[in-house]
Amino acid sequence: MATETIAFDAAELLDTPEAQAAYLSEIMAEGDAAAMAEAIGTIARARGMTVIAREAGVSRVSLYRTLSGKGNPELATITKVLAAMGLRLSVTPTSA
């Protein structure tokens, strides 16, 4: 008998602003820009991509493409999207 699996979607688990902020903080700590963009996209899907796109002033299709992990979003786009989600970037010193 074959094992039945279901697709995992992190967006389904990111149901609070606190969970979303913690998720994004962990991804940002890794320093991978593509992973950061993809994580922001996951949070946007959790909140509703259409709503976030409208509040950020970008098209939904453009937002999907930009935050796919293959896109290369500008900092201005990232800050607009994060603001639409009620989040902001934060900087902390690395331990040397």
Write the layout of secondary structure elements.
Blueprint: H1 17-30, H2 33-47, H3 49-56, H4 60-66, H5 75-84
Distance between the termini: 52 Å
Write down the Rg.
14 Å
Shape: globular
Number of strands: 0
Report the uncertain regions. none
Helix content: 55-70%
Number of helices: 5
What profile does the largest beta sheet have?
none
Report the oligomer.
Answer: single chain
- What's the mean pLDDT score? 90
Series of secondary-structure elements, N-terminal to C-terminal? HHHHH
Structural class: mainly alpha
β-strand percent reads: under 5%
Concise account of the structure shown:
It is built from 5 helices and no strands.
Give an overview of the whole structure.
The chain is mainly α and 96 residues long. The chain has a domain at 18-84. It is built from five helices and no strands. It has helices at residues 17-30, 33-47, 49-56, 60-66, 75-84. α1 (17-30) packs antiparallel against α2. The longest helix is centred in the middle third of the chain and has 15 residues, at 33-47. It is globular and about 50 Å long.
Please give a handful of descriptors for the protein shown.
96 residues
